[in-house]
Every structure is written in C-alpha cells, then in structure tokens.
Specification:
The complex is a heterodimer of chains A (332) and B (495).
Chain A (H helix, E strand, L loop, with lengths): L10 H11 L3 H7 L14 E5 L6 H17 L3 E5 L6 H8 L7 E7 L1 H8 L10 E17 L8 H10 L5 E4 L5 H11 L5 E4 L4 H9 L5 E5 L10 E6 L24 E9 L4 H14 L3 H10 L2 E5 L1 H23 L1
Helix pairs in contact in A: 3-9, 5-11, 7-11
Chain B lengths: L1 H7 L2 H19 L5 H12 L4 H18 L1 H7 L10 H10 L3 H35 L3 H12 L10 H15 L2 E2 L6 E2 L13 H19 L16 H9 L3 H15 L4 H16 L11 H17 L2 H6 L5 H12 L8 H4 L1 H30 L6 H20 L2 H19 L4 H28 L1 H6 L2 H29 L1
Antiparallel strand pairs in B: 1-2
Classes of the chains: A alpha/beta (332), B mainly alpha (495).
Chain lengths: 332, 495
C-alpha cells in the first residue's frame, strides 16, 4: 500500500540526478568531512515541534514513529506543541530554529504550501524547510449522514446540484484547506456548490452533517474509520482506488479529474547538515517498516508515502505545482 | 452497567482513580496547564496499562483538573484554567475575608456534585443527549454565545457601562489573528506570532495575575498577607447551610451537563452561563462579586458536570466534542475500542468502568479536597514578599506552556499592564476575559450561519429554527433585564 516505492538514493546515483532533484547540497558535504561531529550525531535529545494539538494528525504521525526513532537514534525525542493559526505559528518557529539537527518538526501538505501563498505575514516560506521524509497520506471524502442520507449516491448528489447550481451546501473544516481546494476544483469542473467552512475542525464537520445543518460534508477519510455506521461516503479524492476503503468510488471514476491528499512528514530548518537529515531519515525509513507502525497507520485510515529527503523535495515540488493551479480558483 | 461499576471498584482501580484525581488537581491548579495537556501527558503511560486501568485513570484525571483550577482562582485570583474564570469572582473575595477554606471546600463539594450528576447523565442518557446536541447548529451556537455575553453588563458587581466597555474590549481582542472567514489577518501589526490570536490562557493569566501582583507590591508593608488564614470551626456547617436549598446545585448541574454535551463549547461557557443564572435567580443579587459561596458553587458545579458530559458525543457518536475528548479518542483506539453507538454493546464493561471512574472521581474530589483544603489555604499565609516572586514565576511558566511560545509570555505581560490600568479606572478585567472567551464562539457561529444563509436565506437560517428562536428570545430578555435592573438600581441609589 505504499504510494510510491521508496528509493534509497545513494551518493553516486544522486550526483547524476542532483541538478534535477533540487537537492544539490546532499553530496557536497558528504565529500568533505563534517566538522561539527556528524559521527556522533545525535548526541543529545532532539526537540520536535508539533504544530497542532496533542491527539491531532501530526501528533499521531509522530507518536507512532517516536519509540522506534528513539531506539535507533539512541536519544530521546521531545515533542513540543507550538500551536495556533492552523499550524503557521509552529512552522514559523521551526523555520527560525537553529539548523543544528537538534530541532525538527512535523509538516503537513498542503498547509505549508498554501499558507505562505494565501496569508500575509505567515512568518515562514515553504523553502525554509528541508524535508526529512513524507510519511503518511489520507485523501478526502465527500459524505452524507448514514442514518438519514440526503443522497443515496454521488450520482443523485450530482443530479441535485445540477438542478440547483450554487444552492447546495458542502461543509468543510476551514477556508483555504484541502477540503476547500477539492470543492473549488469540483466547482471549476462543473459541480457548483456552496462551501461552508465550520472553522472548528473535522469533527465539527461530521456533527454538522449528522445534525442536518448541511447535507454533504467534505473531510479527511480518517473521520470515516471508526464511524462507518454514522457517515456514508459518496466519493474519495485519491488518484486511484483507496486500498483501505476500496468500495468508495474515486472522483476521477465519477468523471471529475480532481484529486488531492493530506500528507504528513518531518522536516528540519533549511540549512541543516544533509548528513544529519540522512541519519534521521534512515531511522524513519526503518520505523516505517515496523509492524506496529503499519498497523497504526491502517487503524488511522492513512496510507504510506515513505519518501526520503531527495525524493520528498521532488514530491513537494510536484504538489506545489498542483496547488499553484488551484489557488487562482479560490479568488473566483 | 454494574459489571462496569464492579470493575471500577477493583482496589487497583480505586487507587488509580485517587492518583488520577490527585494528579488532575495539581495540573488544574497550575495556571497554564490545562486538562488537555494533562491528558496528553498521561496517555502514553496508559498504553502499558490494561485498557480499563488506563481509561479509569484518564477519566479521574479530567475530573480532578476541573476542581484543581478553582484553587488558585480562590486563593490568588488567578484561574487555573479558563473554565474557573468565574470561580474567582466570588472565591477571591472570600479569601480576602479570611474565608478561603470555606471557598475551597465549597468548590470541592460543588465539583463533586457536578461530576457525579454529569457522570450519571453520561451513564443513563447518553443517546438522548447526543441526539439533542446534534440539533445544535451554527445559528444555535451564535445565540448561545450571545446569551452568555449578556452577563457583561452585570459582571462582578461593576457598573453597567464599565462592564460593557470591558466586554467590548475583550471582544475586540478576540478578533486578533487570522479571521475565520476570509482568511485575512486582523490587528497583527506585522507580528506573525499574532496570527493565531491572543492565547486565551496566557491572556487570562496576564489580566488576572499581573494587576494582582502589582496591587500586592504597592502595599508598603511588605510583611502583609493577602489575608489571615483563619481555620473555621464550623466551616462544614456554614457550607451546608448554603447548600441546603439545592436549587443552585441542580440548576448548575443541568446547565453544565447540557452545555458540556455540545461539541466544542466546553466547560468555560458552562461556568459563565451558570454563574449568570445564579445571579439572576438569586433573591439578593448584591452579594455576588463580594464573596458569595453560592457564586463559587454555581461555577464549579457546572464546569465539573460539563467534564463527563463532554464525553457523550465521543462515546455515543464517535465524535470527540472537545480537545480532551479527542485525546481520549486516541487512547480508546489504541486499546482497540472503536467509539460510536456499538461501543456500549461491544465492550460494556470497560466503557462503563470509564464512566463510573468519573463518578467515583467526583467522590475522590470530595475526600481529597477536604484533606487538602486546609493545607492549600495556608499558601496565602505566606508574606507578600515571598508570594509575589513565586506567582510571577508561575505566570511566566504558565503563559509559555500553553502554546510553547515565548511571544505569549510577552503578550501576557502587556495584557497584565493593560489589566492594571483597567483596574485603576474601574473596568472589571473579568468582563474583558469574558469577551475574549465568548468572541470566537459568537463570531464563528455568525460566520457559518451567514455562509449557510447564502443558499437558504437569512430568514430561514435565523428565524425558522425552534432552538435558535428560543435562545434568541432568551438573549433579548436577558439583555433587557440587565438594562432594566441597572436602571432601577441606579435610580434607587440616586433617590
């Protein structure tokens, strides 16, 4: 269920590909001996900035890796929750931290791409981070209440929207998040709905649909796992059939070329020694092979990405290109 | 249900309940450390325990924290968490009068009653309450928030216009940061740290603690104390006489339970609404804000009833209604329990043990509070020159700990100075805090309602929903009542 095979790119390979991969620094410092003790890194505990509250997606993604990382790195990882402004406060803190390898943080796509584009004074740029690895992903679902469904199927929903363009509410957690992006892309593709941002997180979206305050909701598929009796998905926004819920049709199967997933990963402040990043990313790669980590991901309804630093740069760049094609749609 | 009780009564579990409550009291009592953070700290430890043991301890911790936050509110006028804000209104005046012990024991008993009633509601009527909570949509939240805002004019015995002014300033402060609608940055003045808004917990520490410290330091006689600790002999009888008519307890428990069930509103709102109603329905309204035990009781009953009640949506719908519930959701999932309607059928023992732990936690609060209160009250025995630096250090740790952000500590200082100035010109800081707490609830409710009105129309959204209409009527009546009673009071004093 890996989204892409993980490639453990080595230096020889990389030197050929470096100009393409936007990670030119990776080999340079490999050649020269590192002066600040790359050999004994890490020698003290590592601070991990988590930009959302305990119990959120970022926390979950980090916590399942934590015991394995601590074991293989031989130091403790100290999570620190720097929250607010949809994660932006914590990311500004991470961006401004000393790039000495002893401060890393969780990152989420598309948040770290959208915020610097759409909000003034975010305090960071996407380029302020060196990605250690992107670990997990989860697509979005369009859903209705299972007990009293407003629509039995996506087709029924689609027909209703076409009869009442712009007059059907879709509840999502916030403005300018992935849910909103999927909604504007659908809008652009001819499914004209009214986005209602609840401003209170994913669980409020589920309550809103279940209470009948808006007929359809859009949120991460994670909300569906453990709530199969309460909500009924109409469609999923993964590019291909989502393996953990293979019975849900994808938007592209339903005739809309729209897809998008939330991605969780780890990053260091820009300028962190690539050797140190490599050490952490190797530990992450090993942790992602552990049985309990895989099981936890499945329980949480997340799929695995598992890209290392170099591949992640490319991955993030691709995602950014996609996002740039969507942001103008928000304005309309 | 009773298998669960037996499981909770297992001696090892009883010990965990006591430990959980004691830990919770401590976390609640330290300003800046909230129940959410306590739960997050505790969850990893529960991973190595039996599912029932872990959940029992978490439940008890939550109940304990809801009482613990009253302690600093009473003793030094600094609420331990936002939900104890209104506890300080009457708790601190009691301390100043040397009746701190009475206030703390009253808070403790009220907390116990609240937890037991809220827990019982969770035990026997979860499905009904959950269905009712779902009927609460954005327009209803808007009016509930607006209803709570009507307390502004009468907060803590201040004058109508000063209370109103403080409340409006608080509302204005609550708009700092990224707007929930439109995503524009408001009043950030180029500081990215302000994007997330003013940290509520840091602001409360600043507004309540700093003016307090300055006021204490102004006193030339450095050996003075906040007040003399007077061990009261008949303290239980005094409190009993106050509680003999259980109207306040019942009203506060019902309000706390219902507001607690609503997703996302939580214990702070429950405490404020309950206090407001206690004042409104009292025969002698002038005693509030000057040390009325009833005031302390109304807040503590409600916020403790809200704690177990906030588990209703989690256990019966699988939707966590609060941050703490979200952490509990993680703990349940980790132990292989899937929250939702089937939970009570699949693993009744463990779930009921968890619910019973909250009820038993209430009893543990009762016992622990009684033992701890005389010890805690001695804190104000310390001479002011010793107390000031200790509290000052706590304000810094507390304001930093909430979001892990040094900027919040600076903000706490700035708001502290503002709070001091406001105090000097007679504007109650509690009104400012009220605006700050209620602002986001009201703004978000209105914002989402207006988004819904784009398809349904303003009239349908605001004037055709029965609960919304009732709340609207209550808000208007409550506002008129506040104005009327103030006009009457001022005309009486003049004439």
């Amino acid at each position: 269920m890996r989204k892409r095979p993980r490639i453990r790119t080595r230096c020889t390979l990389l030197s050929l590909a470096a100009p393409l991969l936007l990670a030119p620094a990776a080999c340079a410092s490999d050649a020269g001996s590192s002066d600040d003790g790359g050999d004994d890194y890490p020698s003290e505990s590592i601070r991990v900035i988590i930009t959302f509250d305990p119990g959120g997606g970022s926390d979950t993604d980090f916590r399942r890796l934590q015991p394995h990382l601590e074991e293989s790195l031989g130091v403790s990882l100290e999570p620190e929750y720097v929250t607010g402004a949809g994660g932006a406060i914590g990311w500004a803190e991470l961006a401004n931290a000393e790039p000495d390898g002893y401060t890393i943080g969780t990152v989420v796509l598309p948040h770290i791409l959208l915020q610097p584009e759409l909000i003034e004074d975010t305090g960071y740029e996407t380029s302020d981070f060196d990605i250690i690895g992107m670990n997990a992903y989860a697509p979005q679902i369009l859903f209705v209440d299972a007990e009293d469904p407003a629509f039995e199927s996506f087709d029924e929903f689609e027909a209703h929207v076409q009869e009442n363009p712009g007059n059907v509410d879709i509840g999502g957690a916030a403005e300018y998040n992935l849910s909103h992006a999927v909604q504007v892309m659908l809008d652009d593709a001819g499914l004209d709905t009214n986005y209602v941002a609840t401003g209170e997180g994913a669980t409020a979206v589920v309550s809103g649909v279940r209470g009948g305050h808006y007929p359809v909701g859009i949120t991460s598929i994670q909300q569906y796992f453990g709530a199969e009796d309460e909500i009924q998905p109409l469609a999923v926004s993964s590019e291909e059939t989502y393996e953990l819920a293979s019975d849900i049709p994808t938007l592209s199967e339903l005739g809309y070329d729209v897809s998008g997933s939330t991605n969780w990963g780890l990053a260091a402040p820009e300028g962190t020694d690539p050797e140190k990043i490599e050490i952490i990313s190797d530990a992450v790669a090993d942790a992602l092979d552990e049985e309990d980590v895989l099981q936890n991901m499945e329980d949480e309804g997340q799929g695995m990405i598992g890209t290392g630093p170099e591949e992640s740069e490319e991955y993030v760049q691709d995602y950014l290109d996609d996002i740039r094609s969507v942001t103008p749609l928000f304005e309309q | 249900m009773f298998d669960g009780l037996l499981l909770a009564l297992d001696p090892a579990h009883l010990l965990l309940i006591l430990a959980g409550v004691a830990g919770g009291v401590l976390i609640g009592a330290l300003p800046g450390l909230t129940a959410t953070m306590g739960a997050a700290l505790l969850v990893p430890f529960t991973f190595v325990m039996e599912p029932s043991a872990g959940l029992v301890m978490l439940g008890a911790m939550y109940v304990g924290a809801m009482f613990g936050d009253a302690v600093p509110a009473v003793l030094v006028n600094v609420p331990g968490t936002p939900s104890a804000m209104a506890t300080a209104f009457d708790g601190y005046p009691l301390s100043e009068q040397g009746k701190g012990q009475r206030a703390i024991i009253a808070a403790c008993w009220a907390s116990a009653v609240g937890a037991i009633i809220g827990g019982t509601a969770l035990l026997v009527m979860s499905p009904t309450l959950a269905a009712a909570a779902l009927a609460f949509g954005p327009p209803e939240f808007f009016w509930l928030g607006a209803f709570a805002l009507t307390i502004m004019g009468s907060v803590a015995g201040s004058s109508f216009f000063r209370g109103l002014g403080g409340g409006l300033f608080g509302l204005l402060l609550s708009t700092v940061g990224i707007a929930p609608a439109g995503g524009t940055s408001r009043f950030t003045f180029g500081f990215y740290q302000l994007q997330g808004g003013v940290s509520l917990a840091a602001a409360l520490i600043g507004l309540f603690a700093i003016p307090q410290l300055i006021k204490l330091a102004e006193n030339r006689k450095q050996r003075t104390r906040i007040s003399q600790y007077v061990p009261e002999r008949r303290v239980f009888r005094h409190i009993w006489s106050e509680l003999r008519r259980p109207v306040t307890l019942i009203r506060s428990s019902v309000l706390g339970t219902f507001i607690g069930v609503l997703p996302g509103s939580g214990a702070s709102l429950a405490g404020i609404v309950s206090y407001n109603e206690a004042v409104r329905w009292s025969k002698d309204r002038t005693k509030f804000g000057k040390g009325a035990v009833e005031g302390v009781v109304s807040v503590e009953t409600a916020n403790n009833a809200a704690a177990p009640a906030s588990m209703v949506p989690l256990l019966s719908l699988g939707v966590p209604g609060s941050n703490v519930a979200a952490i509990f959701l993680g703990a349940l999932l980790f132990h292989g329990l899937e929250p939702g309607p089937s939970l009570f059928d699949d693993t009744p023992e463990i779930v009921f043990a968890f619910v019973w732990a909250m009820i038993l936690g209430g009893i543990a609060v009762f016992i622990l509070g009684r033992v701890m209160a005389p010890l805690l009250v001695r804190a104000i025995q310390a001479p002011v020159y010793a107390l000031i630096p200790v509290i000052a250090a706590l304000t810094m740790v507390g304001s930093y700990a909430v979001r892990g952000n040094m900027f919040d500590t600076y903000m706490m200082f700035v708001l502290g100075i503002v709070g001091y100035v406001l105090m000097k010109i007679g504007i109650p800081v509690a009104a400012v805090a009220l605006g700050l707490i209620l602002g986001p609830i009201v703004e978000n409710g209105l914002d989402v309602s207006l988004q819904m009105a784009e398809t349904a129309g303003i009239f349908t959204v605001f004037f055709t929903r029965p609960i919304s209409l009732v709340l609207m009527a209550l808000t208007v009546l409550s506002a008129l009542w506040t104005v009327y009673s103030n006009v009457r009071r001022s005309s009486r004093t003049e004439g």
